[in-house]
Amino acid sequence: MTDYKEFITKNLYRLDGYRAYFPRNNPTFNNPEFEDAQLKVMITRLSPFPNIRESITHHFLFQEVRRALPYAYIDYSVFPNPKNIPLFAENNIPFFLGIQSLRSISDFDLLLVSNSFNLELFNLPYLFLNTGIPASKTERLKTKAPVIVMGGSNSLMAQCTISPEGDSFIDALFFGEGEGAVQKIISIINEKKDCPKPELLDILEKEIPGFFDIRLPIPESACVSPPKAPHSSHLLTDYPILNTDIENTAKLQITQGCPCFCSFCFEGNTRKPFREYEPQDILEKALVVKIKHAPTEFDFLSFNFNLHTGISRIIADLNKVAKFVNFKSQRADIIAMRPELLDIEILSGKRTYTIGVEGISDRMRRYLHKSLNEQELLKALEHIYAKKPRQLKLFFMITGLENDNDLKEFKGFIMKLKQHKGKLSPGCRTIMSFGLLVNLPFTPMQFAPTIKDPESIKHIKGDLKRDCETNGFEFRMAQDTEEFLVSQHIALGGFECFDVISDFVNMGGYFDGEHISGDKNALISALRSASGDGLYGAKDENYVFPFENLRGAPAKSFLYRMYDEARNFKDNGYCLEGKGECIGCGGCEERKLSTLPEVRQEDIEKLRNIVEMKKRPKSMQAVVTIKEAGKFLTPEAKCVFIGRAILEHIPSLVKDYLACRQVQNMPASKGYGFLFGSFLYDFEFMGSSDAFSSYLEKNTIDSPLLGISRVSGKEIGNSFRITSAWKDVSKYSFQNKVQDFMLVNGMGFDIRKTDGLTYFEVAAKDRKKKLLNSAALGQENGSVSLEVETGSNFSIVSLLKHIFGEEWMDAKVESI
C-alpha cells in the first residue's frame, strides 16, 4: 500500500485546486484508521472537483455506505484538474487518488463511480490508463483490483462503456434510484468480500434489482431499480464537509421524479412517478442538516420546485432556520396559474429567475411536448417582470425543424416581451440561452432525426441572435458544436463506440470537465464510421436501442406513441389537474393527477414576520482560533466548521443561529488561506444571542479544527508569528534578511537583544506608513521564528517572499 502524502505536501502550491485535499484527517468523514476499516470504499466523480462541487450524488453514496457500515473507510476521488495532469503523469501519481487517504484505488475494496453525463465516460479508461489498473473488466479479473460499480443519472446511457464482445470499463452498472439499494450492495460486498469476484457479482445481480453484472447479451432478468416511495430517511443529512467555496449551501430534496412528458427530457420520461416529500419531514431533516453542516443557505433539489403542492409552507418553514432559502428551476405555466407564488418567492429574497421555454414557437413547443403556449408564457413573464427581478434567463432548444413561420413567431414573442420589460422592469437583465437538441434514449426523441450537420441550422441561429440583440436581450449559444455531435452520437450509439473511445483515450484524449481534449473532428469521424448513419435518421419501432429490453424502463411502445404525437405536433398535456389527463405511461398504479400548489396566506404572513426579524439580526463577536490542522480552509468551509462546532455544543441555537464571518480587520492576511491562529468573527442570530454569550462566559468551544472563545479585550488581527526551517547557519543570516526588508521599505528602526531574541522597534515617523510597528526574531538549530506587529498596508506574502525566496510557502504563519 502506498500513500502519496509526501508528494502532495511537497508540491502543494504547484497543484491547481490543492485545497480539495484539506483538511487532512477531516473529522466529518468519521473514518477509522485505514488498516482497521471493515471495508474500504472509494467514491469517484468523473469530472474535476470545481465541476462537481455543487452536485450531491457522491454525498448520497457516502450516506448510504456509512449507514450500511459505520466502520468503513470512505474516500472521494475526482478527475484531476487539467492543469495537474502533467504533474501527476510526470511523477507517476495515480489519477484515481483519494482526497483523504491519498491512496490509489488499488488499496480499496470497492469503487463506486457516479456518472452524471455522457462526455464524462471518456474519463473512465483515461483514469485507469493513468493509475496502472487495466481498463478492461476481463483483464481486471486476473488481478486484485477492487469491485467497480457505476451508477448515476447517465447509467441508462452508458452503453459505450461496454464492448461488442461484452467486456467493459467497469464491472457492473446500477440502473435506477439507489435509495436503500446501495446499502444492500455494501452489506453484501462486505459479507462476501472473500468470494471470487465473478461469484460476488452474480450474487449482487440476483439480490439487488437494478444491479447488472455486465455481459452480452443482456439477460432478460436485467432491470431498472423500481422507484421508491418518498421517506424522510432518504433525505440527505449525513455527509462530510468539504473544502469548497459553496460549502455554506446545503441541498434539500423536496420532490422525486416529474409529472411532465417533455419529449426531449430523459428525467421526465425515466423518473416516474412524481413524488413529494412531506413539508414536515423536510423541515425536520433541515434541522439535522443545520446541526451537522451549519449552512447559511438551503437550496431546493427538484426538477421544478413550484410543482410541490406544499411549496409555500416549505419556503416559510425553512426561512425560520436559515439566513437564505434559494430555489431555481420552475415551470412558467404554474406561475401563470398561481402568480401569488411569486409573492412568497420575492419575500424570501428571490431576485433571479430561470425558465425553460424550450421551443421557439407554439408549434415547436408542441413538438417538444412542453405543454406551454405563448399566452401562458407571456402571462408568466409579465408577472415576473412586475416583481422587478434582477435577472431573467430563458432557455430554448434548436431542433433543426424550425421554419420561417416559427422564426417569425419568435420575433413577435420577443417584441411583446420587450414591451413588458420596458413597462414593468426596464433594469432587469434578460438572457436568452440556446442549445441544440440532443435526442436521448428512453425519450420519444430517440426515434426522431438528429442534427447531423450544425451548418444546416446556421441561418436559424443567425436569425434568433439578430432578433434577441436588436430588441435589447442578451443572446447565448450554450454548446460547443463538435462536443454536441460527440455527445449526441454516444447517447444513441451502440456498443461499437467502446473501441472508438478506447482508441481516443490511448491517444491522450479526455474530457476536462468543460471540453473534450483531443482531436474532436477525428473522433466524430471515427464514431460515424463505427456506427453508420442509422442513428441520425428517423427510426421506427423496429430499431434496436442498446438497453431497450431492461425491465422497468419506459415502454418502447409508449415512447413511440409519444413520438408519433410529437412529429404531428400534438401535445396532450401532463399529469396535472387543468393541464391534461393520464396518458398511460405506466409510471404509477394510481393514475392520479397532481394538483396545483396552494399558496397559503398564513405562510405569507409567517414569512413576512421572519424576514423582518432577519433584517435586524442579533450580532456579537467572538474569537475563533483555527488550529494548524484547519489551515487552507476556504472562508465558507471555515464558517461551516465553526457553525457546526457551535451547534454541537449549544443545540438549542439550531433555529436562531444564522451565520458567521471573519471581521475584515486583517488586511495583511486578506485572501490568504494558509494562516491559522486567532481571528475575530461576527456572529448573527435571528432570535437572542444570549445562549451563545452565556456559554462563552463559562466555557470555550473546542473541536478538532478550531476553538471558539469570548473576546478578551486583546487586539486581534495585527500580530503574527512566522516559523520556518532555515538552511543558512551563519549567525546573523536571518536577522540580515529581516533588516533588509525593513530598509527596502523605508523603515528606520532601533535594535535590541533580550533573552536570545532580537527586537526591531520601527521609528515613530515610519509607523505612519502602516507597514510594521515592531518585529522580534529568533534563530536556532536550523529553524527561525519571527513575530510581527503590523499595520494596515502590510502584506504577509511580500515579507515571506523577501525573506524565504522560493521556499516562502513552507513557512507557517499564525495569527496571535
Explain this structure to me?
With 816 residues, the protein is of the alpha/beta class. The chain folds into 5 domains: 5-213, Cobalamin-binding domain (Rossmann fold, 3-Layer(aba) Sandwich); 227-330 and 575-612, Transcription Regulator spoIIAA; 341-479, 2-Layer Sandwich (Transcription Regulator spoIIAA); 616-709, no CATH class; 719-815, Sirohaem synthase, central domain (Double Stranded RNA Binding Domain). The protein is built from 27 helices and 29 strands. Strands 19, 20, 21, 22, 23, 24, 25, 26, 27, 28 and 29 form an 11-stranded mixed beta sheet that branches. A 6-stranded mixed beta sheet has the order 2-1-3-4-5-6. A 5-stranded parallel beta sheet has the order 12-13-14-15-16. Helix 17 (458-470) links the parallel strand 15 (429-436) and strand 16 (474-477).
| Percentage beta strand | 15-25%
- Average pLDDT figure: 94
Number of strands: 29
Q: Do you know the CATH topology of the largest domain?
A: Rossmann fold
Give the topology.
Blueprint: H1 5-10, E1 40-45, H2 49-52, H3 57-68, E2 73-78, H4 85-90, E3 110-114, H5 123-129, H6 137-140, E4 147-151, E5 172-174, H7 181-191, H8 197-207, E6 211-213, E7 249-253, E8 255-256, H9 266-270, E9 275-276, H10 279-293, E10 297-301, H11 311-319, E11 324-326, E12 329-330, H12 332-337, H13 341-347, E13 352-358, H14 362-367, H15 374-386, E14 391-398, H16 404-424, E15 429-436, H17 458-470, E16 474-477, H18 481-492, H19 497-506, E17 510-511, E18 516-517, H20 520-531, H21 556-567, H22 601-615, E19 618-626, H23 635-649, E20 657-662, E21 676-685, H24 690-698, E22 701-702, E23 706-709, E24 719-725, H25 733-744, E25 749-754, E26 757-762, H26 764-767, E27 772-780, E28 783-790, H27 796-804, E29 812-815
Parallel strand pairs: 1-2, 1-3, 3-4, 4-5, 7-10, 10-11, 12-13, 13-14, 14-15, 15-16, 21-29
Antiparallel strand pairs: 5-6, 8-9, 17-18, 19-21, 19-23, 20-21, 22-23, 24-28, 24-29, 25-26, 26-27, 27-28
Helix pairs in contact: 3-7, 5-19, 10-11, 10-23, 11-22, 15-16, 16-17, 18-20, 19-20
